[in-house]
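We were asked to recover a plausible sequence for a given structure. The inputs and outputs are reproduced exactly as logged, with field labels preserved.

PROBLEM: sequence recovery
POSITIONS: 298
GIVEN STRUCTURE:
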């Protein structure tokens, strides 16, 4: 039987606050040559274990952007690999700033009063000996065994007319394997660049947001947030995330075969609600659309 590439959704919640039914963003691309981790929100490595993966065999991590809900387990990545005596490189890729973040985490492992790894006198491999971190820019291509990883900047931080300017960068990734193509939007608003990167993909894994529901939740959980802060949050949610309709439109413009919704920000869940959102995606997209579940393979 030929090998079939899988996209495993380890954590399907939208951040940053914890959700009772879903873990923070983290995913795994399983290809014939191994496993690639895509984002590493809090609990990512416990989810890897629950899904049956051997962390020691995960050699590559791609980070979409630096919001805490997407990188909360970076320090755990270093510490767990120390404890398991990692003897092979751990390659970490991400937008500009990733290498600096990782360097500071590695430096934290040297603080004498705060060593949290092993026991006194125990010799462990140090992250600087096995971590290989590389900042990547929009348009770069990374080859990992039989997987071609390409990327573009998206509109999570700023509108499309301002892409390429100074400031933080949020990336969308495309993974092309011998049998399948998968586009991971990461966090983004509507974006022609992502549509182009996703052209003809078999599976488009995209975030989803209901602005009204999310803003109601923010007001309930942050009653002391100033009106100015609420206005800024609503502006960001409106322009820099995807509604179900926008996700469906993106998939249609890209010519994707199937849509998988992740980064789900809701505190409650029901089959009826999910069906309603799928219907909204399918208002703009004729292909198959599904809500992802934690620890499921697609």
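RECOVERED SEQUENCE:
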């Amino acid at each position: 039987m030929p090998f079939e590439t899988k996209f495993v959704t380890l954590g399907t919640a939208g951040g940053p606050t914890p959700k009772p039914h879903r873990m923070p963003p983290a995913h795994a691309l399983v290809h014939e040559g191994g496993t690639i981790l895509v984002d590493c929100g809090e609990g990512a490595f416990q989810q890897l274990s629950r899904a049956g993966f051997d962390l020691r065999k995960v050699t590559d991590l791609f980070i979409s952007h630096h919001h805490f809900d997407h990188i909360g387990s970076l320090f755990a990545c270093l510490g767990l690999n120390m404890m398991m005596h990692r003897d092979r490189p751990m390659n970490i890729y991400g937008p500009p700033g990733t290498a600096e973040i990782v360097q500071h985490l590695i430096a934290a492992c040297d603080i004498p009063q705060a060593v949290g790894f092993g026991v006194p006198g125990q010799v462990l491999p140090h992250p600087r000996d096995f971590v290989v971190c590389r900042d990547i820019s929009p348009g770069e291509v990374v080859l990992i065994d039989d997987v071609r990883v390409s990327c573009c900047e998206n509109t999570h931080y700023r509108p499309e007319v301002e892409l390429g300017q100074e400031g933080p960068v949020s990336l969308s990734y495309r993974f092309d394997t011998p049998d399948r193509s998968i586009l991971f939007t990461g966090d983004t608003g509507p974006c022609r660049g992502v549509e182009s990167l996703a052209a003809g993909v078999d599976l488009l894994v995209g975030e989803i947001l209901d602005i009204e529901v999310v803003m109601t939740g923010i007001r309930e959980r942050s009653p002391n947030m100033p009106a100015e802060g609420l206005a800024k949050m609503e502006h960001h949610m409106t322009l820099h995330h995807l509604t179900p309709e926008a996700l469906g439109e993106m998939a249609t413009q890209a010519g994707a075969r199937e849509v998988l919704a992740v980064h789900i920000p809701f505190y409650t869940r029901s089959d009826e609600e999910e069906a309603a959102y799928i219907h909204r995606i399918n208002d703009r997209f004729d292909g198959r659309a599904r809500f992802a579940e934690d620890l499921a393979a697609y």
